[in-house]
C-alpha cells in the first residue's frame, strides 16, 4: 500500500514540474534574454453623460510628458511667465539682428575703421586687426601696393582680395569682417546737454542721437528739431523731426541718420526770455556806467 502511494506522489510531482516548465517557455523573451514590457494603451475615460453603449471620443491626454511626435507642446513644469519671456526674447532677437546686420552689411569702410581678413586654411595670407589709414589702402602679403578699401563694403573688399590671391591659391575662400566702426560720424548742436561730434557705431535714429547727447535741455524745443543732410551737389537739405510727438507716441521714430548729418535742437520761448533778460541787464549796466538812469 505504501509503494502505491509513493508512486502516485512521484507522478503528481513530475506533472507539476512539466506544467511549470511549459509555462516558462511560453513567455515571450527579448534578444538578450530579458522579459519585454508591453506598453499599455491609455483607454479613453468614460463620459458619464453618454449611454453605456454609445461610442466615446478619445480623451485628451493630460500628461505633460512629450512623445516623439509632440514637438509643439510646452512642458507643464515651466511657469507661464518664463515661457512668455522666452517668446519675447526670440521676438526681440528676430527684430534686432536684421536691424544691426543691415547697418554692417551696407557699411562703407573709411579711415580708422578696423577690419580683419581671413583666408581659409592660409594663415600666411590672413591678417587680423587692420586699422585703415587715411589713405584707405591696406597692405597684404603678396599684393604689391596693397588694396584700396575706402568707400567699399566688406563683401566688395573680400571679392577684390579673392581675385588677387587667385594667382597663388586654388579657389581661395576669403572673408572680411568689420571689427570696429569708427569712420561714420555725425554732429549734434543746440540745446542739448553734451553737444559735439560723435561716432555712429550702429544704425541710429534722431531720438537715439539726442539721448546719447544727454537729452534736450529745458530751454530746447523738441518739436522743432532739424537734421541737415548734405546732398551729392553739396547743398544741405533740412529734415524736420518732431521729437516731442515721437516721445508722446503720436509719430513714428523712423528718421535715421546717415554719416555727416547735423542734428540741430533750437531753443524755445524760455531761452528767448533768458536772452531778453540778459540783454536788459547789460543795457541797465551800460546806462549806469554812462551816467544815465537805469530801467
- So, the CATH homologous superfamily of the domain at 86-183? wza like domain
Known CATH architecture of the domain at 86-183: 2-Layer Sandwich
For the record, give the distance between the C-alpha atoms at the N and C termini, rounded to a whole number. 153 Å
Major β-sheet strand ordering? 7-6-10-8-9
Anisotropy-based shape: flat
Write the layout of secondary structure elements.
Layout lengths: L1 H25 L53 H26 L8 E6 L7 E5 L5 E4 L2 E6 L5 H12 L8 E7 L4 E6 L5 E4 L6 H7 L12 E6 L5 E6 L1 H5 L14 E4 L3 H21 L6
Parallel strand pairs: 6-10
Antiparallel strand pairs: 1-2, 1-5, 3-4, 6-7, 8-9, 8-10
Summarize the structure.
With 295 residues, the chain is of the alpha+beta class.
Key words describing this protein structure:
single chain, 295 residues, alpha+beta, wza like fold, Outer membrane lipoprotein wza fold like, three-stranded antiparallel sheet, 6 helices
Amino acid at each position: 500500500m505504501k509503494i502505491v502511494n509513493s508512486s502516485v506522489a512521484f507522478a503528481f510531482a513530475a506533472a507539476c514540474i512539466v506544467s511549470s516548465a511549459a509555462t516558462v517557455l511560453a513567455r515571450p523573451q527579448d534578444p538578450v534574454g530579458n522579459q519585454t514590457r508591453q506598453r499599455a494603451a491609455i483607454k479613453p475615460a468614460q463620459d458619464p453623460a453618454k449611454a453605456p453603449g454609445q461610442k466615446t471620443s478619445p480623451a485628451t491626454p493630460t500628461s505633460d510628458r512629450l512623445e516623439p511626435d509632440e514637438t509643439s507642446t510646452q512642458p507643464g513644469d515651466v511657469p507661464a511667465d518664463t515661457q512668455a519671456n522666452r517668446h519675447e526674447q526670440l521676438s526681440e532677437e528676430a527684430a534686432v539682428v536684421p536691424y544691426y546686420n543691415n547697418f554692417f552689411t551696407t557699411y562703407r569702410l573709411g579711415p580708422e575703421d578696423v577690419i580683419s581678413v581671413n583666408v581659409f586654411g592660409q594663415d600666411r595670407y590672413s591678417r587680423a586687426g587692420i586699422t585703415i589709414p587715411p589713405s584707405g589702402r591696406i597692405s597684404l602679403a603678396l599684393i604689391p601696393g596693397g588694396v584700396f578699401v575706402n568707400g567699399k563694403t566688406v563683401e566688395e573688399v573680400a571679392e577684390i582680395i579673392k581675385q588677387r590671391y587667385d594667382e597663388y591659391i586654388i579657389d581661395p575662400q576669403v572673408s572680411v569682417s568689420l571689427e570696429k566702426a569708427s569712420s561714420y560720424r555725425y554732429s549734434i548742436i543746440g540745446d542739448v546737454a553734451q553737444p559735439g561730434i560723435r561716432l555712429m557705431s550702429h544704425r541710429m535714429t534722431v531720438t537715439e542721437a539726442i539721448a546719447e547727447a544727454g537729452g534736450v535741455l529745458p530751454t530746447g524745443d523738441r518739436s522743432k528739431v532739424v537734421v541737415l543732410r548734405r546732398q551729392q551737389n553739396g547743398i544741405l537739405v533740412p529734415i524736420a523731426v518732431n521729437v516731442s510727438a515721437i516721445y508722446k507716441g503720436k509719430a513714428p521714430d523712423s528718421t535715421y541718420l546717415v554719416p555727416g548729418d547735423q542734428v540741430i535742437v533750437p531753443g524755445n520761448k524760455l531761452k528767448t526770455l533768458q536772452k531778453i533778460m540778459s540783454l536788459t541787464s547789460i543795457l541797465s549796466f551800460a546806462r549806469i556806467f554812462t551816467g544815465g538812469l537805469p530801467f
